[in-house]
Amino acid sequence: MRVLVLAPHHDDETIGCGGTLAGFAAAGAEVLVSHVFDGSTGIADLTAAACREARRAEAEAAARILGCRLVPGLDLPDRMPHEPGALIRPLIALLRRTRPALLLGPHAGDRDHEHRLVAAAMEEAFWMASSPMFPELGVPCAPLSALLGYEVWTPIADAALTVDITAQAERKRAALSCYVSQDDASGWGAGGMGLSTYRGTTLLGGGLAEAFTLRRMRLDARDLIDLFNSPGAAK
Amino acid sequence: MRVLVLAPHHDDETIGCGGTLAGFAAAGAEVLVSHVFDGSTGIADLTAAACREARRAEAEAAARILGCRLVPGLDLPDRMPHEPGALIRPLIALLRRTRPALLLGPHAGDRDHEHRLVAAAMEEAFWMASSPMFPELGVPCAPLSALLGYEVWTPIADAALTVDITAQAERKRAALSCYVSQDDASGWGAGGMGLSTYRGTTLLGGGLAEAFTLRRMRLDARDLIDLFNSPGAAK
Amino acid sequence: MRVLVLAPHHDDETIGCGGTLAGFAAAGAEVLVSHVFDGSTGIADLTAAACREARRAEAEAAARILGCRLVPGLDLPDRMPHEPGALIRPLIALLRRTRPALLLGPHAGDRDHEHRLVAAAMEEAFWMASSPMFPELGVPCAPLSALLGYEVWTPIADAALTVDITAQAERKRAALSCYVSQDDASGWGAGGMGLSTYRGTTLLGGGLAEAFTLRRMRLDARDLIDLFNSPGAAK
Amino acid sequence: MRVLVLAPHHDDETIGCGGTLAGFAAAGAEVLVSHVFDGSTGIADLTAAACREARRAEAEAAARILGCRLVPGLDLPDRMPHEPGALIRPLIALLRRTRPALLLGPHAGDRDHEHRLVAAAMEEAFWMASSPMFPELGVPCAPLSALLGYEVWTPIADAALTVDITAQAERKRAALSCYVSQDDASGWGAGGMGLSTYRGTTLLGGGLAEAFTLRRMRLDARDLIDLFNSPGAAK
Amino acid sequence: MRVLVLAPHHDDETIGCGGTLAGFAAAGAEVLVSHVFDGSTGIADLTAAACREARRAEAEAAARILGCRLVPGLDLPDRMPHEPGALIRPLIALLRRTRPALLLGPHAGDRDHEHRLVAAAMEEAFWMASSPMFPELGVPCAPLSALLGYEVWTPIADAALTVDITAQAERKRAALSCYVSQDDASGWGAGGMGLSTYRGTTLLGGGLAEAFTLRRMRLDARDLIDLFNSPGAAK
Amino acid sequence: MRVLVLAPHHDDETIGCGGTLAGFAAAGAEVLVSHVFDGSTGIADLTAAACREARRAEAEAAARILGCRLVPGLDLPDRMPHEPGALIRPLIALLRRTRPALLLGPHAGDRDHEHRLVAAAMEEAFWMASSPMFPELGVPCAPLSALLGYEVWTPIADAALTVDITAQAERKRAALSCYVSQDDASGWGAGGMGLSTYRGTTLLGGGLAEAFTLRRMRLDARDLIDLFNSPGAAK
């Protein structure tokens, strides 16, 4: 199975769903990570180009630990005005190039403006990518199976899906520690693990977890039965 | 796998998720249906006892078509004042007796007062049934895997889960037609199929579908991969 | 009385409120339909120009059946980025040209991006059209009486207004069948009638109905009395 | 036409919709006001019985000015625990006795606990009163035409319906001044008129207005045309 | 302490929080008012330039009465399309120039499109102004203490903060009366005072008040104690 | 200043606002903690009486570390049906006995049923305690200054107030460690600190923090100035 994760900024994918990604990779899935903005801000005293380079290097290191592969993203300039609709077409093209079964990105209620821009565009591209519209953007892909939203700046008030990442805790911690610039700036190393620990307590009764919104999952009854008959389910 | 469906009134299970239930049964799951209220109202000119009997007979016939088995429910009197908390303890006992992996019931936004009572109690019983609390209500069960909400009186504005029921359309139609009293009163035979057809168009691009809210699904990454690798997924 | 219906795409007016429009026309109102986007996508294997032509012809045929008249709309290119504010000025001009008493369009919670763009712009243009602002856009019209939102891709969770369209059912069905391209693509013929049937069951207890949000209706007490004294009311 | 207004406490009907009621009465409607709670609290230093008497006398005087008639209400003790469902049955009986076309009461978002209790019970009784259920509560009435919610302690964030009460301003002011006990306690005389003035400015561009939520209005297209063709509409 | 108030249009600051501003000034704070749009519309029969001049003169007079000082704002053309993100950068620059401890502006739920644009941009600029990003926009300021939202066109459904302005009532009234053009157009003189009177009744039990949303206040426990120990608190 | 904290269950006060309470105490406030439910469930294999005793002893130890004092609460039996309105009267009596300036309790969106019961009752008792109603429940107190909601089972999506608890981190950790039974059951020791660490990162840019909803704070302008001029503010 192929999974695509959209991260507005370099580190969102690790904070929001690094444990889940490591679990996907460990179970044999191909996990692609694509950054929407170019990383040209967020480290004091660096030029835009140096900042971009530094943040991308951090993301490469984190992806390696999690077992993911970076794919070129939209490369939009950080923190500049972007019209919501303008992200939709490049996302359709990206989905048609990468053809994932599962798409993850920031949840729609995140208080960061750029996270919400990405979340809104994902909802559109999710169904348009498999429609016959826009032949100039590539061959339509098969309908995607599910769209999951992860949490970074704003916690999800009512999580539809909880993924147990207890077994991936050390990989997540190690991946977070690659983002030295963001840990220095606001303590995301401890903050990201703190959130997963809190989620483990409240959603699993212990261990570590990641929480997701779930929009537009398409299944049939057979899938659901397979799912809940699997040895990992219904813990 | 064992599935438990809670229906406030006799026919809600068929309207809201009859196609999905038929799909579960066809795929080998054991599907239990339990009615919360006693069916003593809802047919003009019948005594409470006769009404109850008539509605239960309709439910039996529908369940037979869908491949489900009725299990005794809470048997609360229809349309009488019920304190929200009062449903929680009998639901815990029911979950501990039946021990399902998956629980379905009305979604939390239904405009029928009694549907919302059931939805609220399900959210509590869902986690309490596996806690050590209330030993007098039975041996704690394993944590349930997921809680799904189906739609009857109020459509779900933003469905998390879409189940393709195209292959179960005729069974759903036949089961709805068992509820003669409700079809006579408000046309639920055509209304229930109308909703599934609309959901097929908007959520699948054709065919028939049932829409669900999804709350508190617990998985690990392996489950998700199995799910989306299954032949039925990602249509 | 003059009514203006804004439809993002060619068929939304028929799906969302075709029965109500036919009822308006049958009762003597002048019903104008205006499409916001140009119909240049949505049919596989056609050029933009041919697609536009085909969709407009379908809309003409449907309008004829419903008793409506098409008026030139905003003609914005389909599925391209549009800045929300950019629709407001052309809508003000359209309202000043057509001077309706009643305005209908998609409701604000539709999950289609372009439906929400139209809904947001309608809310602004609704009051600005009668203000002295923007004399370059035409002579201010009288304040409009009401703004109604119809449902297409996302059902309205809590409908303020239900219109009984049982008597217009065949006209709606016939108008939907004019939209051959959309029926082929996703079954909107059956899907649209399915929604009206479901609405009839849940909102009227039988028959067919269309559901609306209602924002900013302005009345005085006399109007309300006339309304509820009319022979058609309080069925 | 007959209108029924439910007021949790003695003065809510005047604050929330006194101008509209006066307009109804002036236009020839029969306007009934029924208080849900018994008025036994709310005036310092009075016994429950004296408080009840005093508040009822104030309500009688206000109703006389507005042209309404008080009808016996539910007479529940003020500010005591009441189970939400417990109000539904007496409300059904009241609706079957009074058989109004139009029902008004507090809107569902009011922050006063007892206002929300009444709003919730109204939504249920609104449809149950015309159903065949509960023959012991009286002969089912015809379906009501509309359910309107007025504002008292919490303003309505998004008003569906605005009623121009400029012509009834003096009657509303005079009726408010009958509630001496509440004006002394918290200035409701000025506060109620202040709200109507603010509503006039924001919703009508001047004059005085009352704002309402509107839930479940049932019409056909002919009614809507009559409505917006009436001389009072579209001001 | 320095306070900055953002007003979309000339008069919003007085309607929404004029009494609070006068209270701040009387207590020794430095209160700056900045208008986001240029005031080129909103008075019939004036050219854009004359309108702008007239509205600015009204704002100057009102500010003088309230004890505030106008500072140059963003000067964006009124009622033209503006991309949401486009306001963020000039707001960051403004915050870095003025370096306030407290920021007020329209609340996020106002139904005026331009009010919501300002509210959305304020939320972003609020935290970005003190970040190291965008050195070209000025030297980062200290983190702001609080972001308050005031009400104009849409009342706040659930106010977090109530400020007693009884002692500033006359100043607010006098400042409102400076906005002759807006009072003529829609009665904002009486409407603004009406809202404050209603808020006094419902939120303080008498007197006049202004209501606010409160987002992102940052304190420590000592601050809270000082606050609630102050002689003015806990009235 | 006197602060009252309502905790549904023994440990909620420490998880939700233990750092803030320690800060209050350190700054000289008198901090009272009152538990609503009796602690008779929540530890496997103990009788109700033993469970109650054990949980109370844990709460005593935690309160000692935080510098708070336990006061007798409502002592309602854990996890039994409680009618929402039934909590209001005992809460009024408690507020009149303890007469706090500031009231804290669970926020209204917590997914635990009993937390929401407490939150709803607090909103009512908050204003009723200072009203002349219910003289049998004690002498009315002065109006309270503010009502704050803390987070336990469900994070607050949009926190109004952030309190920096970096300086109280060790006390919070030590108090959490007194709740051995809850830490054993679901890891609340690590989970509670994890949440505070996440909040420090996202809301302060480092350190530890607690997040609150804020409802009904009443101030005048002078208080706000004092607040934001205090040395602790605007960090």
TrEMBL record, chains A, B, C, D, E, F:
<dbReference type="InterPro" id="IPR024078">
    <property type="entry name" value="LmbE-like_dom_sf"/>
</dbReference>
<protein>
    <recommendedName>
        <fullName>LmbE family protein</fullName>
    </recommendedName>
</protein>
<dbReference type="InterPro" id="IPR003737">
    <property type="entry name" value="GlcNAc_PI_deacetylase-related"/>
</dbReference>
<dbReference type="GO" id="GO:0016811">
    <property type="term" value="F:hydrolase activity, acting on carbon-nitrogen (but not peptide) bonds, in linear amides"/>
</dbReference>
<dbReference type="Pfam" id="PF02585">
    <property type="entry name" value="PIG-L"/>
</dbReference>
